[in-house]
Amino acid sequence: MSIITDQWKKYCVIGGWFLVILLSSGCWDRVEVNDIAFVLGTGIDYYGEKEIELSIEVKLPGTTEAGGMGGGNGDQPTFVQSATGKTVAEAIANLQMRFPRKLFWGHNRVIIFNEKFVRELGVKQELEYFSRSPEARTRDKVFVTQGKAKDLLTAVQHLEDSTAETLRELSGTNIGLDVSIRDVLLGLKNEETEVAVPMIAVSADTEGTAEGKNEIELLGTAVFKGNKMSDWMNMRLTRGLLWFKNEINLATVTIAPEVDDGYISALMIDAKSELIPEIHDGQWKITIKAISEDDIIQNSTELDLTEMDVLQSVERQLEVEIKNRLVEVVDKVQQEIKSDVLGFNEAFRREYPEQWHEHKDDWNQFFTTIEVDYDVKVYVRRLGLSTGKQESEE
Amino acid sequence: MRFLKRFLQKRQQKKQQRLEKQKNQQQQMLQQMAADIQLSTDINENIKNIQESFHQSSDILFRTFSIGSSQACIVYVSGLTNEDRIYENVLTPLMEATEEAHSLQELIEKKISVSEIKQVQTFHEVINDLAGGFQALLLEGHQSAIIIGLPKWEKRSIEEPTAEQVVRGPREGFTETIDDNISMLRRRIRSPRLTIQMKKSGAITNTAVVVAYINGVANDKLVTEVNSRLDRINIDGVIDSGYIEELIEDNPYSPFPQVLNTERPDVIAAYLLEGHVAVLVDGSPFVMIVPTTIYSLLQSSEDYYERYIIGTIIRWMRYLFVVIALLFPSLYVAILTFHQEMLPTTLILSIADSREMVPFPALIEALLMEMMFEILREAGIRLPKQVGQAVGIVGALIIGEAAVRAGIVSAPMVIVVAVTGISSFAIPRFNAGISIRMLRFPIIILAGSLGLLGIMLGVIAIVVHLCSLRSFGMPYLGPLAPLQLKDIKDVLMRAPRWKMDTRPHLTGGTDRERQASNQQPGPN
Amino acid sequence: MIEKGRISSLQLAIIMYPTIIATAILIVPAVTATSAGRDMWLSPLWGTVTGFLSIFLAIKLNQYYPDKSIVEYSSDIIGKFFGKLVGLGYLFFLFHISGVIIREYADFVVGLFIAQTPMPVVIAGMIAVAAFAVRAGVEVIARSSELFIPIVIFIIFFILVLLIPEMDFLKIQPLFDGGIWPSIKGSATIQAWYSEFFLITFFLPFLSDKKRAVKWNVICLILIAVSLSFTNLATYLLFGALTEELSYPLISATRYISVADFFENIESVVMALWVAGAYVKITAFYYTFVIGTAQWLKLPNYRPLVFPIGIILVISGLWAAQSFTEVKDSIGKVLPFYLPLFGTAIPFALLIIAALKKKIIAAHQSSEQA
């Protein structure tokens, strides 16, 4: 009887298959983690009409605590390199020539555009690369900077290891807008709200910082018209804009009650807003309904907030304060910027698709004529740990 | 196409021819055994023949004496006999007898006060029983002999099984003596339905093999199947139950054990109550349970002794450990060399930094460390108990620490290997743990060549293999695949005692009801 | 019979769920978004009409010929020559469609995750595993899909739940902006997937409980429609009008998942788990192709065919398309007609002939009796 039975044959065949696969599998896509240069942030600068300058912030190896090589202290854990090219892809290819390790975009978190660049050339063609590449992600945050993006990446901060990390944390605080590549690309679709991107710059105030370190500050919001940036808003207006986008969170509102010299500050714990469109007899109107629940965090007046009617009057004044902020934003957008970043477009499309279709093509003109109504509600829920007031100095 | 058909037919024919040939051989052997020599009336001739067939072995003792005037001789193997009782219960009464011409029957009835006794005619039976530890009484002028059962040998006392310790539960374990083992089972299941069938296996060793089951609870078909598989065995010797296990498995090429081994009588009793069949082998403290599923290999008897919520959670964790033991190093390799984006930025950066000085690719590093771990584990078993522990600690601490410091491996890899190793030891059955540990190596290689896709292909291959496995006709992954909703209560969780009203469907026989329902306790 | 194993109707449904959803879930959102836009979540529900028809035809034909598959009973219905021809047509169809499926799998894996790995290796790896299962028979295929189906359902559920914080639920308003027609147009592509349900004709003879076949297959179809509808909805809520520009919207969606800045970039895990679904799909087609061929050739055993056909399938996967564009193009333009032709049109014709034949014979017999 032969040793090679049918069973054996079967297993030889299967074993053979696996062997073929294993042997033929060289290691095509295998990249050791030490042959990778981790790109943490990307900056895109204006470099003439037809070219861009791409800067990347790359992690230096051996600079984390776990490296255990003693490095770190005082050493900058990242460095910045830049190259030019007609497209992002070409610039990356040119950059790669300078790197012995493969540039890896999987951990890229921010993309910073130079203001001049977005005003002249727009963002779409560059972001297209990032939405197509299997390495980069559409979740990456987008920023516009007043100065050079490269300078911003080179800046060293006190708290975080890299500019990219600083920016990522900054966008998570909800003080300014939080905009990802997806949001920008979606905004570029013609039926959507216009794009608004947070604007940042290296802080000019270097007092108190160590030598060679610069903090980064939020300046406001860059407002787009189509693909290109057209105008910008300062931080005060940006806070108002957040109301329209229903992204307001932990804002502080301060009022000066008429009866007294001092101020009362309230912290919004929970805030919601809603745009309610209406069309009556061809009259287009939109109501912004803003409701917030607040805590009083400072009271430098003589008012006793533990009394119901005092508290109610404070609530009314807070409402007026918020409303003023909203009016300011609407005035600015409707009269100066003339680009619908407020989201009226979507609101009308949802409720009145037929009428909306008529004005769809010249919306940015049309929307400036829409009447805006304000419905602001403030509820003060708590007064903090002490409910005292300032004693009058008599 | 006709060619293909003819080819298939030919294959079938060949197979049948082979089977017939085997059958013929077996029959011939049986016939040979039947034709055996009768004992002679001449006692001296019988003694001479016995001496010859044992080749003058020195431990065969012949004590000749006379009953009245006729000559007699008692033959036994000195190490296997209770000589005190031979003297007390056999020699003394026989030698004191004065009457002449006893018949054998009379002797057995009146003189020899031993409970296990029988009469045999053939020479073959005499020597087989002698080798088996029985004593033979030969008498002048009789064509038959009396076989007396007064065995005695040195044996280990009952101890706690070292490989399957529990915090809560019985502490006794099986020993090498099959009679003791059977007695332990009987003591647990005091019912006439507990059936014990003994057979001999091994042409030379003549080892006792016992099939135990509970009548009516175990499926009759299963019992027949086990018996027929045991009868098919034809080897020279059975030294441990492992020999039998290898010869009765369904798929001999599988890395997974298809028979459950345990040293614990409580486990065996529990399985018998679920309709499984136990196979005990003399000389081995490991008793086999068939059929078995992959889940029973991952269960510990303690699951049933502890509170059911704890049992369920521990079971789930154990399933997780299996996944870790199988996949953790390969996931590490795949993520590090293919999917670097998967880890949070700070984590991947610190891993990258710790690997900065390591000369090997992650794949080689993983294989190296896993190998190292297997060496330590194997050495730990072989070394004497007193040294073993020291080597384990020294090996782990010194080699791990020194290797990281020398920059041969990275610290995260040491952590990965250690976690993998420890979770593989959390699998209650050693043989299941070891097959999972061995499968880790091909998967690491797949992970190193195709990343997560490779791991998944490897896992699919293992799952397909497990799905195709059967243990004595029962699907290895049952009751999960194929799905048996009623039996899942004891696989995905450990249902409370008062909910396990029926026996598992796959093993059970006619007697399905396990207990009265509605036994949920509570204040009255 | 050629296959000794028996499966239950539930198991058949468990095979069919990943068989249809595995590739559909990747590509359907993008294809339907193009024509259905905001109402794309409705399209998978319209498409079920084809699915119901396919199930009905397969089961009805099986009732006439309980032990046979279409490759066998086509000869009984329309004569030996034409029957064999139809059988051959089905074999070519299975061969081609398996190639397309394998290609979809390979394009997805290679394109997104392991770009430099040669496609033959990726395909051969999968075919090797599938061959292993096909050789082991229908029972093993059913059992392994029983183990993998929780994974497939889990990833769909998991992705949808984790993305809820990112979704903008107002995006799908207004409903039916362009009337109901765009969503019906969007279902044209999806119904091609549903007509793959006719694959059950090869499994029906192996069922141990045929009575419940209708029930379970219909449940399976509804679950598929609901799953697809939910994925379409989720991707649109996440990407809005961008959906149609994405190659694999669901994967783009998983790339968007981020929980606590720790649990992110998990698309590779989703890919690996999806491969389990792709395995079931490829194995199901592979198995039917092998069984169909063995039945067409009237072989007593199908196992010797497994490895040769495996090699053929590797090649057909490599030849099925030149590029991803071609794959997507054929999904959008060819498959909506091609699949229903074999999934519904031909079986429909066969069923009518078979029914007529039966009536004629019955009439003939009754006239003879009279």
UniProtKB/TrEMBL annotation, chain A:
Keywords: Germination, Lipoprotein, Membrane, Palmitate, Signal. InterPro entries: GerAC_N, Spore_GerAC-like, Spore_GerAC-like_C, Spore_GerAC_C_sf. GO terms for cellular component: membrane. Residues 29-201 form the Spore germination protein N-terminal domain. GO terms for biological process: spore germination. It is a lipid-anchor. It is found in: Membrane. The keyword Signal applies. Residues 220-384 form the Spore germination GerAC-like C-terminal domain. The keyword Membrane applies. It holds the Pfam family Spore_GerAC. It comes from the Bacteria. Belongs to the GerABKC lipoprotein family. NCBIfam families: spore_ger_x_C. This is Spore germination protein KC. It comes from Evansella caseinilytica.
Automatic annotation (TrEMBL), chain B:
Its main location: membrane. One of its GO terms (biological process) is spore germination. Keywords: Coiled coil, Membrane, Transmembrane, Transmembrane helix. It is a multi-pass membrane protein. It is found in: Cell membrane; Membrane. GO terms for cellular component: plasma membrane. It holds the Pfam family GerA. The keyword Repeat does not apply. Residues 501-524 are annotated as: Disordered. The chain crosses the membrane at residues 316-338, 414-431, 443-466. It comes from the Bacteria. Residues 4-36 form a coiled coil. Residues 501-515 have a biased composition (Basic and acidic residues). Belongs to the GerABKA family. This is Spore germination protein KA.
Automatic annotation (TrEMBL), chain C:
It comes from Evansella caseinilytica. The keyword Membrane applies. It is a multi-pass membrane protein. It is found in: Membrane. One of its GO terms (biological process) is spore germination. This is Spore germination protein KB. It holds the Pfam family Spore_permease. It comes from the Bacteria. GO terms for cellular component: membrane. Keywords: Germination, Membrane, Transmembrane, Transmembrane helix, Transport. Belongs to the amino acid-polyamine-organocation (APC) superfamily. Spore germination protein (SGP) (TC 2.A.3.9) family. The chain crosses the membrane at residues 12-31, 43-61, 81-102, 108-134, 146-164, 184-206, 218-239, 271-293, 305-325, 337-356.
